[in-house]
Amino acid sequence: MNLLFVTDIHGNVNVLRKLAELDEDVDVLLLGGDITPKMFVSIINYGNMIMVKGAEGVKINTEGEAVAYKEFMLRKGYVAWYGTAEEFYELDKREYTFNVQKRFLRYAIETLEKRFKKIFFILGNDDDERLGMESFEHAKNINEKVFYDDESGMEFVGFSYVPITPFHSSFELHESEIKIKLESMLDLITDIKNSIWLFHSPPYNSGLDLCIELDKQLKPVIKKNTPSFVNVGSKAIRYVIEEHKPKLFLCGHIHESAGIRYLNSTPCVNPGSESYSDLLRLAFITLDNMKIRKIQIWKI
Questions:
Q1: Considering the domain boundaries, does residue 257 fall inside one?
Q2: Using CA atoms, how far apart are residues 4 and 284, in angstroms rounded to an integer?
Q3: Average pLDDT for consecutive 10-residue bins of the chain (300 residues)?
Q4: Residue 240 and residue 124 share a domain
Q5: What does residue 2 show for φ and ψ, rounded to 5 degrees?
Q6: Helices 13-20 and 93-113: crossing angle, nearest 10°?
Q7: Do 126 and 230 lie in a common domain?
Q8: What span, in angstroms and rounded, lies between the C-alpha atoms of 40 and 151?
């Protein structure tokens, strides 16, 4: 069985196209959350000038350029908006963002359903939680679910939640709450040793959860002229991996912490993300008779 794992594409159409055109024999595609756009860019027409907020150094002179730039940024994975100053003042950014995310999620899943016969996915903390209500023909959102796959005889377990972040995003929980949810899910798994876990958050201090530390103004913390790095994964998630030893643990969330690490006998994989550079990062996992034969991380 060949598994293809991709996470944190953040609404980038160019990355999505690379994934849909990938020429590999894949039995199951796994999407690890943060599927949709998140960064808001507003293009505001004041009548005598057009300004861009959310992107530095961009100059736009005409309405035609503004419309073209909006479409360009949407394809790059931004929540791009264009209108007048009066319209901007009345804009409900949260609802606009949700609608952009909803359109992209449907476009992405329906595009991938044409290429991959089996898709399991979860949402991430940058995806609006209301997107969990969306349903698709073949693809299955397995957040807080255990899905038994008849062909492989393996169980796929999904979990969207992450520890508290400075960004007040979706699917954030305190560690005690994560622990409670995980305990409830464990009761649903028949054969944990042969289960595959699709999580958004990496385990704490695993080598897959290291990112730049931010201060209260969300600026990088510098110590001795060097950026300070911190572990931001979940302690509760690490505990259940070490305690129950699933066959395979897949995660994302922290773009810059790509790699393969082991907690006891469980391989933990974060392929990373470079979606804002139009690069597709993925993990390709080969199993034979429920045994992992090979794990590779690719960049395309």
A1: yes
A2: 5
A3: 98 98 97 98 96 89 96 97 97 98 98 97 98 96 96 96 96 99 96 98 98 90 91 98 98 98 98 97 96 97
A4: yes
A5: -110, 125
A6: 10
A7: yes
A8: 42
Structural domain containing residue 271: 2-37+107-299
Paired sense of beta strands 2-6 and 281-288, if any: antiparallel
Is the overall model pTM greater than 0.90, yes or no? yes
Residues 6+ apart with CB under 8 A from 274: 255, 281, 299
97 occurs within a structural domain: no
Count the domains in the chain: 2
Q: For residue 154, what pLDDT is reported? A: 95
Examine residue 99 and state whether it is found in any structural domain, yes or no.
Answer: no
CB-count burial class (<10 Å; 0-12, 13-18, 19+) for 174: exposed
Structural domain includes residue 95: no
